[in-house]
Request: fold
Amino acid sequence: MAEAQKRLSQTTLKRRQRFHPKRDVKPAVLAKANRLAARVAAFIGLSFLAVIILQAVF
Reply:
């Protein structure tokens, strides 16, 4: 009984992790989105630091 459950869970896990080209987002798109998110986060952080520095100067 436990063997059948183990086999079933492995097949459902493999089925869930498999890449479906029409349904899933392509890895290149994810990499591009990650780069964009990193750039936006860096821009926000640098803007925040610039505002703090300008307030300290004036």
Remarks:
- The chain has a mean pLDDT of 79.
